[in-house]
Amino acid sequence: MCVGQNFDQRHLGDYALAAKLLEKQGISYSLAQLEHLRSNRLEALSQPQDLPAIWLVIGYLSPLILFAPVPFTFALSFLGIFMGAFIRLTKKTLPDGSRIAAFSIKTRNHGKWMLISGIPLIIICWTLLVRIWRG
């Protein structure tokens, strides 16, 4: 058990108890070591995420679900727009209180293009679907 790891998830009482237990076992950390562990943790948490390619493909192609015989096609056709907005707007709060974008710039640009391309693509797909139904 390392006292300095995941410092942001521990209560101060838990932190003190862990330090005393480690001290009883002859393990102690200097303030410099603890600060180093804290800064490493903060650096790791501040790294933006990338979205797996399969989710990007689903986001871009979701309006085409209208043509698939699956339940909830109406709701699923808007999935790309919702995903794009989520990717573009999601932020995370770091333990020091600062807020940063949760996804990388590349992924956020994909989110922007899902929003921009999703609306016209849904309109086109709905128009085609209505024309097919009417014969």
TrEMBL record:
The keyword Transmembrane helix applies. Keywords: Membrane, Transmembrane, Transmembrane helix. The chain crosses the membrane at residues 53-82, 113-133. This is Uncharacterized protein.
